[in-house]
Structure to design on (785 residues):
């Protein structure tokens, strides 16, 4: 979600377009977008011309994957905990190319950073040992996964994958605003992050990083009139649409500057850690991640369901309806590693007592399900 | 098309300058180029804000549950509007996305050819180039089209191209034809029903680029029967920018995936296109209030007013400029947009381009209409709308006369 000041910023852009649509689109829009890229480049320690503003991670993932020229024998490595849309996009690539396949690394938390890196490296080495003429061409790696939410040892993963000659696409959907990003230090081959998640801009604003060495290969999912002129112009116009979500990034950065990134991130992280512990106490359970630094702003708390195959857990419908309609709140809930978890997001508008309330709500929900004879 | 009486003092009707108060224009600004980026009435803006506020009250409730029935309702209403099955419709951001959705999904094979007209929109033709660049032995067949050209002659040109290709007997086949319903620059209404039938008769699939169609001409897909069709609601239907309608005939749906593959890949056309990832859907939702706004007057009334104004306005401008309109006496080739020739003596004048002329128009006169070279002339394209009247076209004609006189004097 976004603040009132960001909403005002978004409406300012929205109104400006209607005052004179031709002047706006033909003259004023591109400089405004370039200003956003400049601000983000400073924020992320990279060159502004290595950034493209896109609608969301789904778009950014497809832009790269649908542009890369895969050849028979190419393999794409992914972690089993990757986001569903990303998994689907990889499957689409495999479906539409001859002999391009997935190599999946099974990830079952709890794992330490070293164990995660080890699992990935072992998968690569097992593949190399096959000597079947195929090659792992590209790896899709979460920086902070979605469900379960885990901060991965991203620098170690990127370095290790590159040492095997594998291109690395970092899915950092959750990262900007939740963890500091330094692209000069990390140096991935591709990276996508949603500003509308943790940075407080309006939904439909994300940023794709493509270093100069790859830019000639990468085109937007929707080709337009700037095709083959330059990466910057190809990605600076996505056809006629409302750009005020993307431009609201300016308002979001302004809001956050009042407090500073460190203060915001520190508050949210500490609250996630303490809130998670408190909820686990109330539920008589535990949190998923063995180490605090694996928690960013999101914590996964185990729900003490007795029967993990309870029929009401088969689809998301029952719990979604119950949480929204009876308790007027929502947290994603999911099975992982044989247990059932809730993922809670801390934020600057929450306090410990909110986590306690949530713990009691979930206790009530689970006690009721456990009481059912199934 | 029936002609509507344009407003007079005695008979002002519901359209004309009084409509300005329903829109968001500043006092000193007149919109003569609705065709490029459209605009929407105040009531539509209010609805957008209302949906945005609703979303923020509980983003999970909205994005996981309440958004979908509203999107579904839009497809239901549009299906009635364009006369097709709702299950054949998808809501997308714009025509660029719609064109790419189909072209990047179709399984082209070596020897496939894609037919386009030279007057096709630049982004569309660039997308075809991309397909040709990235697929083995897939090439474009471009039909050169220069107006003025009657419907009959245009059809003959396309048929000649189809015949010429057949005679090559080189094992290649025209797999797909992409045709404008109403082209952009120059703007001309094409004989789209005949084009669809012609291309079908040669075994080609047809993608109708109706970017400008909905809200400008009646759209009846049950009658037209294209394989694919895209139209921007944010051009002539009065919805907000970023709202377009894609039609994919059921027989092709299993082939077509969104440009950005999402969570519902391979779960059916409607599901795959129901959610395009996290974004602000309020532009698409604004289609509902746009339809509601138009219902006050009825499509026929709106369309016949804007068409009459384009025709009469074009004539008035041509008279002031001492020139002609691109489509001459062929009023059926004009819907709401008319192309008026500009009396520039030297076509190689350094300022005879869209960009330089735009700067003059915007900075000196606070108006804009695109200027472009077509055939042997420089034209400008003017968009009629319900908030305009004939004297606006007269004023525009005088502005252009002044601009061109200045350029002619400075040669």
């Amino acid at each position: 979600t976004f603040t009132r000041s960001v909403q005002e910023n978004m409406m300012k852009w929205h109104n400006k377009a209607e005052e004179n649509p031709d002047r706006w689109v033909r003259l004023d829009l591109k400089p405004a977008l370039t200003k956003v890229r400049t601000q983000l480049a400073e924020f992320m320690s990279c060159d502004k011309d290595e950034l493209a503003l896109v609608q969301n991670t789904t778009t950014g993932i497809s832009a790269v994957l649908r542009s890369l020229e895969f050849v028979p024998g190419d393999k794409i490595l992914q972690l089993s905990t990757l986001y569903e849309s990303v998994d689907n996009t990889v499957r689409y690539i495999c479906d539409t190319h001859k002999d391009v396949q997935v190599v999946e690394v099974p990830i079952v938390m709890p794992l330490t950073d070293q164990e995660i890196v080890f699992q990935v490296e072992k998968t690569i080495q097992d593949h190399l040992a096959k000597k079947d003429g195929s090659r792992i061409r590209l790896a899709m790696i979460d920086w902070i996964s979605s469900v379960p939410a885990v901060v991965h040892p991203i620098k170690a993963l990127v370095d290790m994958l590159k040492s095997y000659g594998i291109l690395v696409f970092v899915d950092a959907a959750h990262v900007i605003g939740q963890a500091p990003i330094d692209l000069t230090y990390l140096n991935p081959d591709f990276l996508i992050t949603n500003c509308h998640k943790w940075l407080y801009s309006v939904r439909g604003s994300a940023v794709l990083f493509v270093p100069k060495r790859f830019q000639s290969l990468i085109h937007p999912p929707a080709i337009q009139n700037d095709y083959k002129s330059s990466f910057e112009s190809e990605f600076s116009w996505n056809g006629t649409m409302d750009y005020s979500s993307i431009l609201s990034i300016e308002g979001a950065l302004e809001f956050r500057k009042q407090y500073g990134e460190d203060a915001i991130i520190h508050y949210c992280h500490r609250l996630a850690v303490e809130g998670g512990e408190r909820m686990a106490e109330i539920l008589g359970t535990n949190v998923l991640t063995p180490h605090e630094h694996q928690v960013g702003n999101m914590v996964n708390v185990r729900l003490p369901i007795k029967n993990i195959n309870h029929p009401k857990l088969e689809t998301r419908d029952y719990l979604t309806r119950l949480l929204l309609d009876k308790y007027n709140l929502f947290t994603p809930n999911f099975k992982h590693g044989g247990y059932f978890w809730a993922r809670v997001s801390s934020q600057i508008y929450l306090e410990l007592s909110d986590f306690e309330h949530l713990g009691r709500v979930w206790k009530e929900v689970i006690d009721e399900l456990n009481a059912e004879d199934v | 098309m029936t002609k509507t009486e344009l407003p007079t003092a005695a008979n002002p009707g519901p359209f004309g300058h009084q409509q300005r108060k329903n829109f968001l224009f500043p006092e000193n600004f007149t919109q003569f180029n609705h065709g490029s980026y459209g605009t929407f009435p105040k009531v539509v803006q209010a609805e957008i804000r209302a949906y945005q506020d609703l979303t923020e009250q509980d983003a999970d409730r909205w994005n996981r549950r309440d958004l979908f029935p509203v999107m579904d309702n839009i497809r239901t209403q549009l299906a009635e509007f364009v006369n097709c099955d709702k299950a054949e419709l998808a809501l997308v951001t714009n025509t660029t996305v719609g064109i790419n959705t189909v072209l990047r999904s179709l399984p082209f094979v070596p020897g496939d050819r894609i037919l386009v007209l030279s007057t096709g929109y630049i982004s569309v033709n660039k997308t075809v180039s991309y397909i040709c660049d990235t697929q083995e032995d897939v090439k474009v067949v471009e039909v050169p089209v220069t107006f003025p050209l009657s419907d009959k002659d245009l059809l003959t040109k396309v048929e000649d191209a189809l015949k010429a290709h057949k005679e090559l007997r080189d094992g290649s086949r025209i797999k797909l034809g992409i045709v404008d319903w109403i082209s952009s620059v120059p703007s001309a209404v094409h004989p789209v029903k005949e084009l669809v039938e012609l291309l079908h008769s040669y075994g080609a699939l047809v993608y109708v680029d109706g970017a400008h169609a909905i809200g400008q001409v009646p759209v009846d897909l049950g009658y037209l029967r294209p394989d694919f069709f895209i139209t921007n609601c944010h051009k002539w239907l009065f919805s907000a920018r970023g709202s377009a309608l894609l039609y994919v005939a059921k027989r092709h749906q299993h082939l077509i995936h969104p440009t950005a593959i999402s969570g519902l890949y391979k779960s059916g056309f409607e599901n795959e296109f129901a959610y395009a990832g996290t974004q602000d859907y309020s532009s698409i939702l604004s289609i509902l209030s746009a339809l509601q706004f138009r219902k006050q007057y009825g499509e026929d009334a709106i369309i016949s007013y804007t068409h009459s104004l384009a025709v009469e306005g074009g004539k008035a401008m041509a008279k002031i400029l001492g020139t002609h309109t691109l489509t001459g006496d062929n009023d059926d080739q004009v819907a709401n947009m008319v192309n008026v020739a500009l009396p520039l003596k030297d076509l190689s004048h350094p300022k005879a381009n869209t960009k330089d002329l735009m700067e003059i128009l915007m900075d000196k006169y606070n108006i804009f209409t695109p200027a472009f070279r077509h055939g042997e002339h420089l034209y400008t394209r003017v968009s009629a709308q319900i908030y305009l009247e004939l004297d606006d076209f007269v004023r525009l004609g005088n502005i252009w006369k002044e601009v061109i006189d200045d350029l002619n004097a400075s040669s």
Remarks:
- DSSP finds 14 helices and ten strands in chain B.
- The first strand of chain B starts at residue 89 and ends at 92.
- Chain B has a mean pLDDT of 96.
